[in-house]
Batch of 4 targets.
Target 1
Amino acid sequence: MNDSNSESQVPAVIAALRRFNRPRPAEQCDLCSLGLTAEHQHLFEPKNRQLLCSCDPCAILFSGQADMKYKRVPRRSRFLADFDLTDIQWDNLLIPIGMAFFFYSTPAEKTIALYPSPAGPVESLLELEAWQELEESNPILRKMEADVEALLVNRIGTERQYYIAPIDECFKLVGLIRAKWHGLSGGTEVWQEITDFFTELKKRSTIIGESSVKAKAEDYGEAKNISLQPQTNV
């Protein structure tokens, strides 16, 4: 090996190592490694139910592409002010707690029901007839974008809140509960975090339904003071 050639390559190697060892941004695009701000896009891999952080250019590549590995997660959320769901219908959905989200999975070719737990998301058996009945009462559910939009339900305590929400918001709620839950009942902190989560989600949501005018006039500050008490262990 020519020693002079070897020596000439050393500075280039060192420069490459220095670039490699530079501190990386706290959050990066999972596709191109571009640094991201706190408010950034997400992509969803339906097959593995995996969320990826994405920069705007990479997210655009997957917009409206139904046959691609990843789907761009929409950023809009809608509060369903007049959602029709009776206690009997809720019981028929076989969800053991008062919180869950439902989305159509293209790999599974059916609607999936997940609810949060201290160990992460848990899939619940969802009877097709029960879901079809809910769709008939609420046709807006048929307009949800497969894989990346979900019906998010909050029926903890006296709450009756229903959203069509991006799938990343649903998994954010799951992560919050997993991270903050302590003991058998969860602890005061986690229930306050859940209250704040839904309060902020409602603020960002478009109100859908005949009661939208009334809903828009709600005092969000008062909503923050609503106490969510668990009816059962999550």
Note: The first helix runs from residue 3 to 21.
Target 2
Amino acid sequence: MNQFHFRHLAAKTTVLCIVLSIPLSAQTFNIQQTYETAFQLATGGDPYQAAITLIETGRQVPGDDASIADDLVGPAQFAGFIGAFLLDDNQRFRILTEVIDEKQYELDHLLVAALQAFSGVQTKSFSGIAKLELHLSKSKNKPIKVAALYMLGSPYYFRGFRKQIPSVAELVLVYPDLELTRHIVETPVWRTSRLAIEKNQKNVYLLKDVVYAGGRREAVLQKSPGLRRIAERMPSLNLQDVTDDRIAAWAEDLREEHDPAIRYALVCWFDSLEKTPSHRKLSRPALESLIEDIPNTPEAVYARILLTAFDRDEWHLKELRQQVSMLLPSQPLPSTPERCFYIETMKAVQETADFFVTYGLYSDSIRIHEALAAAYPNSALAISELDKAQMLRDDPLEASL
């Protein structure tokens, strides 16, 4: 699976994740406490109960404050990660048949609609989209309404979809201060850059796929301080005008910036660009500074993931071994609507294990598979990773083919 397609999966899972704990309210429940409890359950060997905890708690709290949707991104992403990677088929079936009750709970209705909309099966997809469009995006429960609008506006799945433009417009105009709102404006830019690089295209206007305000420069930049910072160094906002000098300037901006929204956007931007040796060399010091100064923020976790990819490209074996140990979560990961870091860290660890196999360093790969399994014990992921480790022990040459 290539880099973009895995990000496509990550974005899809992130969108699905958002629905799992939507109605929690900071006024009536300690969101972080629930998140930490679920994390301890999942990483302690009981991912099924962790998922149930998040779903059942989410049903009990009113949804009168739209800003709660931002607070729930992390717990919801973790719930989605559990469902997609930690549970086995039987456990997922039990949740759908024994736990989910969409007639009684609007949260469950949203979950089923999301699963259908992003199923990849045309008839189910139409049904899910209709639920999102006709019912859930009009919900009186504000966080559920925000989640439905965000999914309908997703640049990864509904590009050109007839409800995408009005959904994004409503999200931005009615809920302008949400993190979800800012990211739905920014995410198409990173997507545009990545796709252009995959297709070896240079003359590409970065706002061309932004549906908000028809991609008009002034309106878009007003909503995103990160894009404004990029535009300050490159007024054309055209991919063909990216130069080493500009990358050096953005790297310096990243080192000096205190606004987390701008820091995160700049890391997204570096990840969206072509990873040439000169680009890596210019951006590496700034990315390393994030890890040193603010190690458990979204931009710092993202920076570590990106640096791990750099170390693979540059064959830094010692650094890779250290990076893997830091990528495995020992506490709940920070969140951002733009991506699920549980998926991204898992992917970075797995790609590093594959890297070691490619070059015949089987013992390193075995240790990595076992470490990932130990991070999520008694899970479908753990079983898969231990199977890979055993295959490498039994016949490393066969396993590497």
Note: The chain is about 70% helix and 0% strand.
Target 3
Amino acid sequence: SDGGLDSETGLRSMTVFERDLKREIERLARSKNPFCLAAVTIDYMGEETEETLMSEVVQKAAEGVLECLRTFDDAYRKGPYQFILSLKNTDYPGANAAINRINRYFKNENMVFDDQGTKRVVSISCAISEVLPTDNPNELVDNLMADCLKNAEEPGTVLQFQELSQLQRFVKKIGD
């Protein structure tokens, strides 16, 4: 029933993500080649946006993401407007270059849609994490996505994600 692909976007589905991520983390531990994850969100998709329009925007965004990735990198559909990119053999500067390619693609394609009479430009925001072999995959993805959504206040924002332990997050929260 689920061959590992999201039927709407052509991206890989989250049903195979955990298995793929574990494989990449094992490969990282053995080979020491860098590996990055990137969380990507489509900036504006309000609840009042029509479902057919949302679907069209998500499909075009997914096409843009696929167009800009290398053939051995993977992209997964995380949620309605969220993608996870698996950037293999890439450190943070390489992942940042991939995100910049995607942002340039969106800027050059000038993706504009009409949302109930209002013209909106499709843009994305991202957070990047260079994965360590000791990272907990589920926590990493959850924290990466949460930080991307929390900090993406301006369209086209790119964030560098640094994994913090629960204690570090608690101390930082007290300091804020």
Note: Helices lie at 17-31, 51-68, 92-109, 137-151, 166-175.
Target 4
Amino acid sequence: AFRAEALVLLAGGSVLAAVLVTAFVPPVPRTRTTLVVAGLLSGTFGTAVGIGGPPLALVYAGSRGPEIRGTLGMIMLTGLPIGIGSLALSGHLGLGEIVAGLTLWPAIAIGYLLARRVQANAESWIRPLVLSVSAFGAVVAITRTLVVA
């Protein structure tokens, strides 16, 4: 039987490997295929493991700051309530989990709005930041799984 812990380790390991590759190779071209694959991985990893942002973020890692901010910000802003709503309707979340998840939405909205103020100065550090945050999310997921398991 496939254990949930194995999925977390697979997803986290995949994200870490993708971060390493992304750090040392030219940016992945954003084509319909790469965006569909990243979207599928993002949705799967986000729902099953809780690290849905990195697959899409890594595809956009070679983009300019305003494009990353606008695209990923809107995905997170709309994706959180959609994901929580879908999991709640399917019976996979209780009321406490729904409330806890939705308490994150205002922080995402505020971050989305504040990001406009810093995006002009973000060009030099946006790619390293995307890679660092993606790797950090994967490490947290893997560590949490190994400590609990």
Note: The chain has a mean pLDDT of 85.
